[in-house]
Design a protein that fits this description.
The protein has about 375 residues and is α+β, with helices and mostly antiparallel strands. It has helices at about 10-35, 45, 135-145, 220-225, 300-310, 330-345, and strands at about 85-90, 90-95, 100-105, 115-120, 130, 150, 155, 160-165, 165-170, 170-180, 180-185, 190-195, 205-210, 215, 220, 225-230, 240, 255, 265-275, 280-285, 290, 295, 320-325, 350-355. α1 runs antiparallel to α3.
Length: about 375
């Protein structure tokens, strides 16, 4: 999902950022009355690292200190290896440096159709790959603290007789786990399988829907366990920006069993703002690629893809390759091109195919 370009004037960008951060903080404060006390945030003095000694001198300081003092033992012999990641609430950590939320989770399902990617324990484990340990309200608060802006979950419009898609800030979701003796981090899309198109989906349009207040101090996602949904739930905390029915006959995603570790595997679900960096190329009916009207080889697209990720310090899954194909391009041609790009070094989950007029087409859900 691509957004509108941001203004390049530094003063305006800083002002927008502070207004956005303030609005998000106010949303969190409003929720604290519902959720109760949480773990303390990093102390203010921790953000002023290096400022010691800039104020008034200590009146009790020894004017003639020992030139060879005995060093005090280290009160923390095992310091935190990653001090930028701080606990916020049980099962929730905030990575202040990366602007990410880390959620403790456990694999609870490896096969079958899905209505959620992640749910709360003892709620919807029969239709969700992950069970997230944290209370959804705490996740909402943590997301607000790093400046993410909620929108609204999917809702049914009775006047129009149809569902309205979710809205909110675009997100990128990854899952980190230990498999085959090594640490792995992959886009969550790799654990999904599009049952209609018979393939792993490309990057999906996750948004911070924000759930809703049910009244009497009840937070919708707390009640329903709807942490990350892939069909229409009107209490979803994180949802897709497209309508997908929850009717059993219309469920479109299933678990990609070969890619998912065993049930019970502990993992971390990572949430952060999406940082789109799309490379858009035209796919001709003959199966060749064109960029800005000129022919380009598969290897050149792969080189651009890898270079974009390195230069912008992004994970490969953050960089999308968009193939714009006219309606006359056959499905067989598209599949051949997809295989050629993967062989050249482009991650399949990063490739998206769009058909039709580039100005009017819309990314499929």
């Amino acid at each position: 999902m691509t957004g509108s370009p941001r203004h390049s004037t530094p003063g305006i960008r800083r002002g927008c950022f502070h207004r956005k951060r303030l609005a998000a903080m106010l949303l969190v404060v409003n929720c604290l009355a519902i959720a109760g006390p949480a773990a303390p945030l990093p102390a203010i003095h921790a953000r002023l690292e290096g400022s010691e000694g800039r104020g008034d001198p200590d009146p009790n300081a020894n004017p003639n200190p020992d030139p060879n003092p005995t060093p005090n033992p280290d009160p923390n012999p095992n310091p935190d290896p990653n001090p930028k990641v701080r606990d916020y609430a049980p099962g929730v950590r905030i990575d202040w440096q990366e602007g990410a939320i880390e959620l403790d989770a456990t694999v609870c399902l490896r096969e079958g159709v899905l209505e959620l990617l992640a749910c709360s324990p003892q709620t919807r484990e029969h239709e969700s790959i992950l069970a997230v340990h944290a209370r959804p309200m705490r996740i909402y608060q943590a997301m607000g603290l790093i400046g993410l802006e909620p929108g609204s979950p999917p809702r049914y419009d009775s006047k129009r007789g149809r569902w309205v898609e979710a809205s909110g800030e675009a997100l990128r979701l990854e899952v980190r786990y230990r498999g085959e003796g090594v640490e792995k981090a992959v886009p969550v899309e790799r654990w999904l399988f599009d049952s209609k198109r018979r393939r792993i989906p490309g990057p999906l349009d996750w948004v911070f829907a924000g759930s809703r207040n049910l009244g009497n101090g009840r937070f919708g996602a707390d009640v329903d366990g709807t942490v990350v949904t892939v069909v229409d739930f009107d209490t979803a905390l994180i949802a897709l920006a497209s309508v997908h029915s929850s009717d059993n006959q219309l469920l479109w995603l299933s678990a990609n069993t070969p890619a998912i570790p065993p049930v019970g595997t502990p993992c971390t679900l990572l949430i952060r703002a999406a940082r789109p960096a799309a490379i858009e190329v035209e796919l001709t009916a003959e199966g060749s690629l064109r960029l800005f009207g000129k022919a380009i080889r598969f290897a050149e697209v792969a080189h651009m893809y890898q270079d974009r990720a390195k230069s912008k310090k992004l994970a490969s899954g953050d960089v999308r390759v968009v193939l714009r194909a006219s309606p006359v391009v056959s499905g067989a041609t598209i599949e051949l091109v997809l295989k050629s790009l993967v062989r050249a070094g482009v991650d399949r989950v990063s490739i998206e195919v769009r058909r039709g007029d580039p100005e009017t087409d819309r990314k499929p859900g």
